[in-house]
Amino acid sequence: MSRQLQIFAQRADKEDREVSWRPFGVCISHDTFKRRSAFDVMRWLSYKYGVGTYIHFIKGYLNEETNQASKESLKRLINLSHGSKNRVYLDTIISPSYTSAIAQVVQLSGISGKGNNLILFEFSRTEPETLKEILPNYKMIESARFDVCILNTSYKSFGYKSELHIWNRPDDFENANLMILLGYIILGHPDWKKGVIKIFALFPKEDVVDKRQQLLDLEKEGRLPISPANIEMVPYEKGSRKNVISTYSEDADLTSIGFRNEMLKGSFEFFDGYVDLGNILFVSANKAKDIE
To answer: What is the dihedral of CA 120, 121, 122, 125, to 10 degrees?
Structure first.
């Protein structure tokens, strides 16, 4: 880790440090008992600076049967979390559709007494159909001014929790600061005590000179908290972006990639094509975050 990044991490470790943004996050999933990766992310984000809520979704109408299923699921959740280092509030929600469940969740005040500011979804690379439930609700979530994280899990899971890669584009600084913040918050958990962060800037090959200057300008203006000297510049040919990321981050234990709503365009293509990577955290910030 570079000296500048080490200083940033040390400052983040101070208990009395003023943090301009804290993750008051909520996660909703109906695959809780298939995969625990989303719960792990909530544990890591909530360990030091934030407060998390994890909600298991049960599809159906409230009746005696679903009410009993809710109680049993909550008991299983508590058993699963027992012994893990976490500050995550566990609950269940019964709703006739995923959309109605999300609408209820985004209105929760949060157990911190403050409104939630981040929502986490999860889908498996072997079951991408779950995206069909998540993405149609993106506009609703965006209107609630949430930062959105979508965790794509793979058979590699989080590996040895030793390398976290962050991919940034100079024209996407709104997401860059949030990804950097989330990266350091995650590394603050004991599970990642031997972890390091690597930051990459992705440029179209023909725009390397202009985009590098744009990156320098962002750093000078204070809109990017990392010196360009500490970011590896990675050019790519048109149409090869995903291949380049896959080549550099194949052995990463978690890869963070930013996205904006206009990139979705009603399709799931943006999230495809990362077959060989471990878990991926796709991040969309509601607005740029300041790092003090």
So the answer is: -120
- How is domain 3-284 classified at the CATH fold level? Rossmann fold (3.40.50)
Place of tokens 């052995």: 251
Q: Model confidence over 112-138: pLDDT tens digits?
A: 667 788 999 999 998 888 888 888 888
H helices of 161-233, in order, are 173-187, 208-220
Task: Encode pLDDT of 133-185 as tens digits.
Answer: 888 888 888 888 899 999 999 999 999 999 999 998 766 777 888 998 899 89
Q: pTM for this structure? A: 0.86
**C-alpha–C-alpha distance, residues 116 and 144, integer Å:** 10
Distance separating alpha carbons of residues 219 and 229, to the nearest angstrom: 10
Domain ranges of the chain: 3-284
Strand 88-95 versus strand 118-124 pairing type:
unpaired
C-alpha angle 62-41-1 in degrees, rounded to nearest 5: 170
What sign for the dihedral angle of Cα 60, 62, 64, 70?
A: positive
Contacts of 274 (CB under 8 A, 6+ apart): 125, 152, 242, 245, 246, 255, 280
